[in-house]
TrEMBL record:
Matching Pfam families: Asp_protease_2
GO MF assignments: peptidase activity
Biological processes, Gene Ontology terms: proteolysis
Keywords assigned by UniProt, alphabetized: Hydrolase, Protease
Name of the protein described by the UniProt record: Aspartyl protease family protein
Keyword Hydrolase annotated: yes
Length: 308
């Protein structure tokens, strides 16, 4: 899954009501299939395994789970949902209460999808429609997720950066965006500034072609190679979106230089949906984010990386 639900009409819905609880709560965070997952309760039922996705504008529930819990019997509506690979029409249901790490939100709109197509083994996705109401600490090295009703969880020795788009449109209120620098491969001295979407739901980091070309790359460059299956998601066809692979020399984030890594290059529709299609931009995936603990403040006003 590159980006399950980048931005959805439900992101414009009124904020779900909060159920009061302790100010700080934590829960185990594991990565069984390259996506961070945690236990979630829907209407107080048995724990379910959900991907925790900072770049999903909507919470998602697997169709079979929704049917077994009776979520679809309370009425549905169809809406157009925008994902990494394009748009598709999906049913939406109302969930009375969604609980993550002991923190609950009430009256949450959820998109119904077949999770086997998106993230096999997951029962759903917790999006930033829920996460943006808390300060969140992702500590993937130590397998821990912390939610705080304060601005952000307390943490020491960290480097912070404000949201790169403070005037972003309302539907992107929960998206954490950073200004960073890309470093070309060992055979190149190229560097490029880029806007980065912090996306824990993306298994692999993705550059758009504006970012790749800023590093001097083209589809014909011998340093890039075509990915056989492209990139797939909610709306992609059998062939997926045309995608290339490239070994990036690294990137500079607040207080942290990321070592070389393989990334994808693709002009995914999500870049247009997030208004980043006309400039160098990247989806900063879990392949990078799992290396360092980080916090996102309530409302995604800033992102902080903790010292290693």
């Amino acid at each position: 899954m590159t980006l399950a639900v980048a931005i959805s009409v439900v992101a414009f819905s009124p904020a779900p009501a909060e159920q009061k609880g302790p100010a700080i709560q934590s829960t185990p965070l594991t990565m069984p299939r390259r996506h961070p997952m945690a236990d979630v309760l829907l209407n107080g039922n048995v724990p379910l395994r959900f991907v925790v996705d900072t770049a999903a504008g909507a919470t998602v529930v697997d169709r079979n789970i929704a049917e077994s819990l009776g979520l679809m019997s309370g009425g549905m509506r169809q809406e157009e949902v925008h994902g990494a690979n394009g748009s598709a029409s999906h049913n939406l249901v109302k969930v009375n209460r969604v609980t993550l790490a002991g923190m609950s939100r009430e009256n949450v709109d959820a998109v119904i999808v077949d999770m086997e197509r998106v993230a096999p083994g997951a029962d759903g996705i917790i999006g930033n429609d829920v996460l943006r109401h808390y300060g969140v600490l992702f500590d993937m090295p130590n397998q821990k997720l912390v939610l705080s009703s304060m601005e952000e969880p307390a943490a020491t020795a960290k480097e912070c950066a404000p949201n790169a788009r403070p005037g972003r449109m309302p539907g992107m209120a929960g998206f954490a965006l950073l200004d960073g620098e890309l470093i070309g491969d060992a055979g190149s001295s190229g560097k490029a500034s880029a806007t980065m979407i912090v996306d824990t739901g993306a298994a692999q980091t993705v550059l758009n072609w504006h970012a790749a070309r800023a590093l001097g790359l083209t589809p014909q460059d011998p340093r890039v190679r075509k990915r056989e299956n492209g990139t797939r998601g909610l709306a992609a066809g059998a062939a997926g979106i045309e995608t290339y692979l490239y070994t990036l020399g690294g990137m500079r984030l607040p207080g942290w230089t990321v070592p070389p890594l393989e990334v994808r290059i693709a002009d995914l529709p999500v870049f247009k949906a997030t208004q980043l299609d006309a400039e160098p931009a990247i989806i900063l995936g879990a392949d990078v984010l799992k290396q360092r603990a980080f916090t996102i403040s309530r409302g995604a006003g800033r992102t902080c990386f903790l010292a290693a």
